[in-house]
Specification:
Blueprint: H1 3-13, E1 20-21, H2 28-41, E2 51-57, H3 59-73, H4 78-92, E3 96-103, H5 104-113, H6 121-142, E4 145-147, H7 157-164, E5 170-181
Antiparallel strand pairs: 1-5, 2-3, 3-5, 4-5
Helix pairs in contact: 2-6, 3-4
Length: 201
């Protein structure tokens, strides 16, 4: 099997997995190395290297979802909170969480030095983060770990940065809880590919 085929197979296998456990198929050291490799080698516009990642394991992972639950408890109507609490508990039940940030100091520096593209740098920054999220997600999947992508930012941003001592300039983009797969996701449905890809030759 060619390397490109292996890569595309990994892309096909990556799914949103919500039923996860606190177990892991690889060591915490390997998880950290996986994230570090993804951060180092995922492309960024102008080679800005603006993406930042935080790996939360053990009690730190639990703390994140406690923060999220308490934050949402203050704004979600009481009669609706039970469903929200169950969803957050399913993320907390995982082995860990990867937080994805973009360093706004880097973005502002690029805006100042390349004024012609100033409006585009925040967009490109988000695209860079999206690439990193995909690389980490696919790599976790390749190791038999299930993950999903969550967006409780900006509601939890300040508390998260305060709790974990992170720079104020880091903008939280997404949260990725992961763990051993408990229940495989169902079949994925696709729109007709001819409506999504046009070829002229």
């Amino acid at each position: 099997m060619s390397t490109s085929t292996q890569f595309l197979n990994a892309v096909k296998e990556r799914r949103s997995v919500y039923a996860i456990s606190s177990e892991s198929t690889i060591s915490d050291k390997e998880i950290v190395e996986l994230v570090e490799t993804a951060v180092l080698h995922s492309p960024t516009s102008f080679n800005s290297q603006s993406s930042r990642a935080v790996v939360l394991l053990g009690e730190h992972h639990h703390k994140l979802w406690d923060i999220t639950a308490e934050t949402l408890r203050k704004i979600v109507p009481t009669e609706q909170f039970e469903g929200t609490a169950q969803k957050l508990a399913s993320f907390k039940a995982g082995h860990g969480t990867v937080l994805f940030f973009e360093d706004q100091n880097v973005v502002k520096h690029l805006q100042e030095n390349f004024a012609l593209y100033a409006e585009n740098f925040p967009i490109w920054s988000n695209q860079s983060s999206g690439i990193l999220q995909f690389v980490v997600w696919t790599a976790l999947s390749e190791q038999g770990l299930g993950a999903s992508l969550q967006h409780y930012n900006p509601l939890i941003d300040d508390e998260v940065k305060s709790t974990f001592g992170l720079p104020a300039e880091w903008k939280l983009i997404a949260q990725m809880p992961f763990g051993k797969v408990v229940t495989e996701p169902g079949e994925k449905e696709f729109l007709p590919i001819e409506d999504r890809v046009k070829v002229f030759q």
